[in-house]
């Protein structure tokens, strides 16, 4: 009786550690880092006078959507590199975001039958919000 009890306790414990202690996949790990970095940018980019093309995302075309975001982040990076008002740490954070978006495109398969994304020009706060929502949807 006691043995059975101990055994079932052990299996519950083992189930719990696999559920909680399982390492995140590289994709989820990258997504989490990206979401955090975007959040940390705070209001630092709000002064920048730049419209960024924000793609409409389609579930099966995540790879293409990422490419479109990546292009805009490169534009943003070039724009803020010489801006005195933007802190160096914020510039390197944008650079990190670019690198992780790049990494993410290497981790997921390109969708088929996806066209170049349709995009709307938006200011940075909106761009950031949509990109964050898109990354969150990829996390599920
Ligand atoms: C960037 O600047 C903001 C201030 O708007 C700050 O809160 C944030 O922590 C900074 N750092 C990074 C790494 O984004």
Automatic annotation (TrEMBL):
SUPFAM superfamilies according to UniProt: 4-helical cytokines
Keyword annotations from UniProtKB, A to Z: Cytokine, Disulfide bond, Secreted, Signal
Gene3D superfamilies assigned to the protein according to its UniProt record, in alphabetical order: Interleukin-15/Interleukin-21
Annotated InterPro entries: 4_helix_cytokine-like_core, IL-15/IL-21_fam
Signal peptide (from-to): 1-21
Pfam families referenced in this protein's UniProt entry, alphabetically: IL15 (PF02372)
GO cellular component: extracellular space
Location(s), subcellular: Secreted
GO biological process: immune response; neutrophil activation; positive regulation of cytokine production; positive regulation of immune response; positive regulation of T cell proliferation
GO MF entry, a single one: cytokine activity
Protein family according to the UniProt entry: Belongs to the IL-15/IL-21 family.
Protein name (database record): Interleukin
Gene for this chain: IL-2
């Amino acid at each position: 009786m006691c043995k059975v009890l101990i055994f079932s306790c052990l299996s519950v414990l083992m189930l719990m550690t696999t559920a909680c202690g399982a390492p995140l996949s590289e994709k989820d790990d990258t997504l989490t880092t990206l979401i955090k970095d975007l959040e940390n940018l705070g209001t630092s980019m709000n002064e920048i006078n730049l419209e960024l093309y924000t793609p409409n995302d389609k579930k099966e075309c995540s790879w293409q959507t990422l490419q479109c975001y990546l292009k805009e982040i490169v534009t943003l990076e070039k724009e803020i590199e010489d801006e005195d008002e933007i802190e160096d740490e914020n510039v390197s954070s944008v650079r990190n975001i670019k690198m992780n978006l790049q990494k993410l495109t290497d981790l997921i398969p390109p969708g088929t039958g996806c066209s170049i994304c349709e995009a709307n020009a938006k200011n940075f706060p909106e761009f950031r919000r949509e990109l964050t929502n898109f990354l969150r949807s990829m996390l599920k």
